[in-house]
Amino acid sequence: MPLGAEARKGKDDAQERAFLVGIDVRTRGRSAKGTVTAQAQAARDAASAPAGAAEAGSKTSQSSGQGSGKSSTNKPRIPEFDAEESLAELRTLAESAGAKVVGEILQRRDRPDPATLIGGGKLEEIAGAAASVNADLLLFDHDLTASQQRNIEKIVHRRVIDRTQLILDIFARHARTREGQLQVELAQLQYLLPRLAGRGVEMSQLGGGIGTRGPGETQLETDRRKIARRVRHVEQQLENVRRTRAQQRQRRESAPVATVALVGYTNAGKSTLFNALTRAAVLASPRMFATLDPTIRGVVLPSKRKILMSDTVGFIRSLPHTLVEAFRATLEEVQRASLILHVSDASSRLSAEQDAQVEIVLKELEAEQKPRLRVMNKVDLLDVEVAESLVKGVPPDAKTVYVSAAEGTGLDRLLERIDAMIEEDPVSRARLSVPQKEGKTLAMLEAKARIYSRKYKDGAVQLEVEAPESVVRRVREWVMK
């Protein structure tokens, strides 16, 4: 055995072995390329609407949610996740959770089976396939009801985890701060509460004989009571976090400093971009949901104005509602931001569909009307000539900027666009005559203003500057009429 192979084998043995199960439900009036839900279609309609037509997009979303799920003919078709790509995403999620994928199967059905989702016959086949590769658990690329999960476990004799439970587990693995851990725990408890029923004999009625008489409360009711108490406790702690964050935000907002929030699909490169712009050292990883805990850093724009940039948790298709609710304290940074940078993976065929999923979460956060700048990241993965034309060919007032955060391409143009879209502490030109003895004032102007001309006359320095309003106020006495 080669050197190090034994150690690697031990590591593999320690990993849980996962068998993936995907399902593609063919509904009437659609191809076999994935399921179109009304919510996803509404988001795609909104994403394909022209820039600046937010109101119209909102109306379109409402009407398409009531319709047949078909997009308007006058809008470009947005590629959707097909079943294979959805299963590939589940594979990435499983690896992010620390599992080793040992097999997978995809079933296409006309409708889900209410008892087992995929039918008893297919389950028997999956049970055999999972046993042949010695799988520890089955991961379903679909949400399961409590009864479906129990029925499947009875047939396959292995642990069964659905997509939501897997995402919650990844969040639990990556949460580092106390706040992040509380948010994940709350989401897990809310997921567990309706799934307690029928978990086995331990949920049976308490005895009624000598020494066992009492209120006759079932173990199920006892567990529900305990979980409900814990939920209230966690919610109270998160409310304290929310109040503290609100106080910190009020202190920040008392100064004319704008906040810019990074949002986007998980693994779009938000943390890499955040590090490139702020020179921070936030963990940037190809694994999904590497960033859970929000980080805020200062960035100096070309106008010398300072902004605060916030890195946030990545979104994903069918992001569990409990997670959105639990992370609301963190995602308030998005709600209160002056500008949202929507980061997309330019190299992905599904970037438009991923953007549509981000639209769903932004709408749930009531932040879809916020000023927004689209940042198409990872252009270094495109053809060199195409990438160069995209980076250089964007007009100065465009709502989309093409960059490579990994290589630093297009970041200057991005900062210029952010500068042009930020309204706080507006920039204006002024002519000043500052006495030479005012060294601190001259140094402040050097640091916080753009200086276009400088002349020395009669013991004073005459300057033509472009500076934020907060800086001009400090030198008002030396403004030349």
Describe the structure.
- By secondary structure, the protein is an alpha/beta fold.
- It has three domains: 163 residues, Rossmann fold; 166 residues, Rossmann fold; 52 residues, no CATH class.
- It is built from 17 helices and 13 strands.
- Strands 6-7-5-8-9-10 form a six-stranded mixed sheet, sandwiched between helices.
- Strand 9, helix 14 and strand 10 form a beta-alpha-beta unit.
- Helix 2 packs across helix 13.
- It is elongated and about 95 Å long.
- The relative contact order is 0.09.
In short:
The protein contains 17 helices and 13 strands. The chain is an alpha/beta fold. It is elongated, with a radius of gyration of 27 Å.
